[in-house]
From TrEMBL:
This is Kinesin-like protein. Residues 6-356 form the Kinesin motor domain. CDD domains: KISc (cd00106). ATP binds at G88, Q89, T90, G91, S92, G93, K94, T95. GO terms for cellular component: microtubule; microtubule associated complex. GO terms for biological process: microtubule-based movement; mitotic spindle organization; spindle elongation. It is found in: Cytoplasm, Cytoskeleton. Keywords: ATP-binding, Cytoplasm, Cytoskeleton, Microtubule, Motor protein, Nucleotide-binding.
């Protein structure tokens, strides 16, 4: 608590798709073990290091356990602000990593082995709350940023734009956002699937189900430990908000999942008209995020103004990136030679992020 903590950055390399294999694309990304990955192609020969690398054969469970996701859940229960976000080129496996197969629904759930970081975290959260004996109150909010408009994915009726405000106590926040309480795994998975089905997606040359918005699902965790012995070892006193009439201290933590829309080159995707407008909006916000990360990666004494206000995405991620949060970044890439330029861009982006520090 209060000490400088580096962002944890892990890499996931998806398998070559059937289309890429039939086309004769070469695999240019190879895992070297111990968190290292090597890119080998004409005029490009580079090695990158991360906290962990998951190659094409890694299971969804291996990604959950090896990324440190379980620890994030425990820290959220203990009152910390925790964020995990997936980023990378369109079609690189971000939504699959977070949610699992796109075809799942409440009537047709995904196979347990294919469930993503979100559902596995929900299960872990509910198991932890039962084992701790805490009086835990859980609620969820779900929004998307589409063409620089913030829209609630849980409110009934057509999604409408919500104002983004700033206050000294709360930082940037979304006004009038709906928060729904839940007590079971079925209830939170239902909220996740309902919201995801309302999210803007379109088909283009690189991805039949391309996300056209950035989505943020936030789990709010309010707990009041039954006794002081329930505090996590080594972190006692963190995240405390109030002690009333001798009752055990209250803690308020959050666990935020951010599924970023994929970076894309209009020439590669064949986008035109509305799709092109969406792509430009996506790329502008990702560029703003990259700019913030570049500034934050500098030593604290050499940092200039951090341009959080350049986009709604960076405003909402300000606390996670450079403030008091604990953040896990999952960089997703394609191993295909055809995607080399975007893959290198993602790897450099992720390498810079490893130098960013926060003070949880």
């Amino acid at each position: 608590e209060g000490r400088e903590t580096r962002l944890r950055v892990v890499l996931r390399v998806r398998p070559l798709t059937g289309t890429e294999t039939r086309r004769g694309d070469r695999q240019v990304v190879h895992s070297l073990g111990d968190g290292a990955v090597h890119v080998s192609a004409a005029r490009h020969d580079a090695t990158f290091g991360f906290s962990a690398v998951f190659d094409a054969g890694a299971s969804q469970e291996a990604v959950f356990e090896g990324s440190g996701m379980r620890q994030l859940v425990e820290l959220a229960i203990d009152g910390f602000s925790c964020t995990v976000f997936a980023f990378g080129q369109t079609g690189s496996g971000k939504t699959y990593t977070l949610m699992g197969p796109l075809a799942q629904s409440e009537t047709q759930p995904a196979s347990p082995a294919l469930l993503g970081l979100m559902q596995r975290s929900f299960t872990c959260l509910l198991e932890q709350s039962r084992s701790l004996g805490s009086d835990l109150a859980l609620s969820a909010s779900y929004l998307e940023i589409y063409n620089e408009q913030v829209r609630d994915l849980l409110s009934p009726g057509p999604p409408c734009a919500l104002p983004l405000r700033w206050s000294k106590t709360r930082g940037f926040y979304v006004e009038n956002q709906l928060s729904v309480e839940f007590e079971s795994l079925e209830a939170i998975v239902s909220l996740l699937l309902q919201g995801s089905q309302r999210r803007r997606t379109s088909a283009h040359a690189l991805n039949r189900h391309s996300s056209r918005s950035h989505a943020l699902l936030t789990i709010h965790v309010r707990s009041r430990a039954v006794s002081a012995s329930c505090s996590w070892a080594g972190l006692g006193g963190s995240g405390l908000s109030a002690t009333v009439g001798g009752a055990a201290p209250s803690k308020q933590g959050t666990l935020c999942f951010v599924d970023l829309a994929g970076s894309e080159r209009v020439k590669e995707t064949g986008s035109s008209g509305e799709l092109s407008v969406e792509a430009n909006s996506i790329n502008r916000s990702l560029l703003a995020l990259g700019h913030c990360i570049s500034v934050l990666a500098k030593p604290r004494g050499k940092r200039t103004h951090i341009p959080y206000r350049d986009s709604k995405l960076t405003r909402l991620l300000a606390r996670s990136l450079g403030g008091s949060g604990i953040t896990l970044m999952v960089a997703c890439i394609s191993p295909s030679s055809r995607c080399l330029s975007e893959t290198l861009s993602t790897l450099h982006y992720a390498s810079r992020a490893r130098r960013v520090t926060t003070r949880p």
